Amino acid sequence: MTTAAAIGVDFGTTNSSIARANSPGDVDLVQFSSIEGITDAYRSLLYLERGQERGANVLKSWTGPEGIERYLSADNPGRLIQSLKSFLSTRSLQSTDVFGRHLTIEDLIARILRDLREKAQHQFGVSIKSAVIGRPVRFVGADKEEENIYAENRLRSAFEIAGYKSTEFELEPVAAAYYYESTLDHDELILIGDFGGGTSDFSLVHVGPTIRQRGRLASDLLGNAGVGLAGDAFDAKIIRHVVSPAVGAGTNIRSMHKILPVPNWVYGKLERWHHLSFLKAKDVMDMLKSVQAQALEPEKIAALIHMIKEDLGYHLHRAVQRVKCDLSESKEAVFRFSNGSVDIAEAVKREAFETWISDELEQIERCIDSLLRSSGVHSKDVDMVFLTGGSSFVPAVRRIFETRFGAQRIRAGNEFTSVARGLGLKALALATAHPQ
What we know:
Elements: E1 2-3, E2 7-11, E3 15-23, E4 26-29, E5 32-34, E6 37-39, E7 42-43, E8 45-53, E9 56-63, H1 64-73, E10 79-82, E11 95-98, E12 101-104, H2 105-124, E13 126-127, E14 130-135, H3 145-161, E15 166-171, H4 172-181, E16 188-195, E17 200-207, H5 209-214, E18 221-227, H6 231-246, E19 252-255, E20 258-261, H7 265-271, H8 282-294, H9 298-309, H10 313-329, E21 332-339, E22 342-349, H11 350-356, H12 358-375, E23 384-388, H13 395-405, E24 410-412, H14 418-433
Parallel strand pairs: 1-13, 2-14, 14-15, 16-23, 23-24
Antiparallel strand pairs: 2-3, 3-4, 3-7, 5-6, 8-9, 8-10, 11-12, 16-17, 17-18, 19-20, 21-22
Helix pairs in contact: 2-3, 4-14, 6-7, 8-9
């Protein structure tokens, strides 16, 4: 097995991809099998179960599509862990207990990265020891640069645990710029908008054949900016306004001859759908059963209990993703989610959805305007805007850029893999400049 030099790894909050660049015009992506067919986006999740081997207790794990399939088919579901990237900047969350085993966040991420690396090695027929790795401009929860550095160091440690001997980081929007540049036959000043699951990142950068030929300079990158929100924040608003009311949010209980509201903090956990399994703790379930006994609308609390007990976070997420995608195509869509005592079917208007996410849209707008000001660039001087990532499909997000730059200057393509492709191209440039 030969060694691969030009590997890019985009470890995302929701999905991950791996690319190998053979030449500027030839980039391969690892393909993965899933219940929905072949995909180049690997779910960044980990599923764990108790197991027995030779009479001893062991912890078994599956990641990506295989983790989803195992989770969905299990009679007694184990622990499904997702969105691990969003915890990297949190110093207070160092580890978690999984069926009596103490595992750090780095250990959990490394299990996903190891499987990704092994699948890439198998497909490419090479030994992967080094890679260029994507990172957001601003990690989720990182308000200061030292928190970004802390998160990056934790991610580097996870890659080392997963078997990588050499790693180099590149900003995700800059990586997308590398990919976009490979499609150009002329020079441009571009604004990259990269919308992930947990972060929205933006870069102003000069790209084109002249830059490639002379070598990239630090001065080619005019500025970066980012906000710690994106697709997950949009999903949370759909859950808050559609799902939570259907399972008891805003309803009341009768206690000691008083009418009191149902505890709202539970629904905050529901909005972070990958936190749903945290509510399965005995004290929480006992509390909810007590609430159900006193509820004025007990059937809604029963539906919430069923959702938690059956660990339906992934199913809920899929339903939210479907209605969000439908709203990108139509002005109205129906949210549908049915499982046991949970049965939700509600029409959602795009106009309402855009109202729900108005605060997030304003933060994105402020971030872009701040980037232009700090870089000393006027919107008319930007030749093209390249949008990538799932939330770039949301019409209200695209309007932010169309308003400032005009629809004719908006470009998109390979929205879910452009970052990985660009990371591979950066790895190729490094390998060419410093051959081993």
